[in-house]
Amino acid sequence: MRRTKITDVLKSDAIGSEIVVKGWVRTRRGNKQVNFIALNDGSTIHNLQVVADVEVFGEELLRRVTTGASIAVRGELAPSQGTGQNVELLARTLEVIGDCDVNEYPLQPKKHSLEFLREIAHLRFRTNTFSAIARVRHAMIFAVHSFFSSKGFVNIHTPIITASDAEGAGEMFQVTTLDLENIPRNEEGKIDFKEDFFGKATNLTVSGQLEGELAAMGLADIYTFGPTFRAENSNTSRHLAEFWMIEPEMAFYDLNDNMDLAEEFLKYLIQYALDNCSDDLQFLSSRLEEEEKNKKADERSMELIEKLKFVLNNEFIRLTYSEAIEILKESKPNKKGQFKYQIEGYGADLQSEHERYLVEKHFKKPVILTDYPKEIKAFYMKLNDDNKTVRAMDVLFPQIGEIIGGSQREENYDKLVARMQEMHIPVEEMWWYLDTRKFGAVPHSGFGLGFERLLLFVTGMGNIRDVIPFPRTPKNAEF
Ligand code: 4AD
Ligand code: MG
Question: Which CATH superfamily hosts domain 126-171+206-316+365-466?
Answer without folding.
Answer: Bira Bifunctional Protein; Domain 2 (3.30.930.10)
